Every structure is written in C-alpha cells, then in structure tokens.
Amino acid sequence: MLRFMFVGDSMTIGSAGEHTWRLRMWQHLRSSLGDEGFAVVGPRLTLHDKSTGEPTSHAYAGGTDPAFPRNHLAGWGEGWLHMAPQIADAVRRDAPDVLLISLGLIDLGFYTNAEQTAENVRRFVAQARSADPHIRMVMLPVIPNVRARTDAPFAAEVARFNMLLAKAVADLDTGTSPLLLASSPPSYDIDADTYDGTHPNASGEHRLAGAFADAMHQAWGVGAPYATPHPPLINASAIG
Question: Which three-class secondary structure string do you get for 141-183?
Fold first, then answer.
C-alpha cells in the first residue's frame, strides 16, 4: 500500500464549501489503485474558514464522499518557509511514502525571493529525508495566478523560482529517494479554472490533481492517466 500526504498552501487546504483538489486526487487514486492500494495521511483534517481566518471548518462541499480521508499537511498562507520546519515531524508521525507538494506562491508573494524560496525547498527535502531516507516527493511549479498577470516583477520571480525548482529537483533526485517535478497543468486558465484568479474551482481542482497523477504515472508507473471529470471506480491496477 502506498501512503500519500498532500502538502500545500491555501490551494491545497481549501476553504469551507469546497471539494479541494485533494478529493479529486483521492477519487483518481481510488479508481486506479483500489481502496486497498493506497492511503491518505497527514496531521491536519480541516478546511480554512474565511469567516474567522482559522483552519477550523469541516464543511466540505455537498456531495463529498463520506469515505474521503480529510488528512493533509496544508495551511492557508503557508509556504516552503513554513513547511520545511514541520515536515520531518509529519513524516515521522504518519509515515507517508509519497509527498504531493504544491507550494511557492505564498513564499514569493509575501516572504522570500526566488533564491531564498529555492533554498527552503532544499531544506524541506533534507528534513523530509531525515525522517525517511526513502521518501518520494512530487513537486508542482507555481502555477498561473492573477498577481503574475498584473505584476511584472512578481511574474519574473515566479519564472525564476520555477527554474530553480527544476534545478533543485534535478540536483537532489536520488534512486533511494526519488524527486519528481510535475508539469504545470496544461492550458490552465485563471479565468476559467479559478474562482478568484488564484484558488481553483472545480475545473482547476481536476487540473491540479491531473498534473500530479500524470507525472506519477509517466515517471513511476503509479496509477493511471488522469481522467476528467474523474474516473469511474474500477478494480485496482498494479503499481509499476
């Protein structure tokens, strides 16, 4: 059984009334690996409550499968800077095999420049491996967002960081602890795939889940290609 942990910022934790891309990914894993083929782990369970500004909501969108495991390590306003000091304890606690990581926008927007953010990526990797030398990680670049559309210097920082992230993945990838850089979701449109220029709507959630799923299938033979809107439930397939 493969154990997955979602690591991310506001796009991953989601807010009250959302399904989140975590649900879409769980649906995909369930269809391609089967209920006995994987688990979702993590120390946190809640959504962000915009009315209080706290991660205290359990109000997922209507129709969310009660079997969906809410576990994650994601936080509104948290980035590589915040997760690097937390990841070792989370890995020791929940023993994930694979980290699915979507971070960076918050760092670049509020805390660190591209070079500093890339250093925190390397720190994160080292800390995760200190808890499990065999852990696998899939990282998503910073995806299109409304600030990058209107703020040219910020857009340049995003482009610079994404280049440094690719270099970090190439430098740090090992046979013992593989790292994988997912592709930015193809044709991601902030007008069609987000509800505010940053946070994914249903379409965007599927695109984010698909980026991770397709990367793992293509590079590691894990699961199947992502199907939209989501795949039907089928028997488990073998992990390559």
Answer: CCCCCHHHHHCHHHHHHHHHHHHHHHHHHHHHCCCCCCEEECC
Distance CA 225, CA 162 (A): 24
Q: For position 136, which CATH number holds? A: 3.40.50.1110
* Cβ contact 49:94 at 8 Å: no
In this prediction, residue 236 has a pLDDT band, given cuts at 50, 70 and 90, of very low
Q: Please give the Cα distance from 86 to 155 (Å, whole number).
A: 28
Residue 84 within any structural domain of the chain? yes
d(C-alpha 125, C-alpha 74), whole Å: 16
Let me know if residue 103 belongs to a domain: yes
Going through 85-134 in order, the beta strands assigned E by DSSP cover: 98-102
Give the tens place of pLDDT for each residue, 28-83: 999 999 999 999 999 999 999 999 999 999 999 999 999 999 999 999 999 999 99
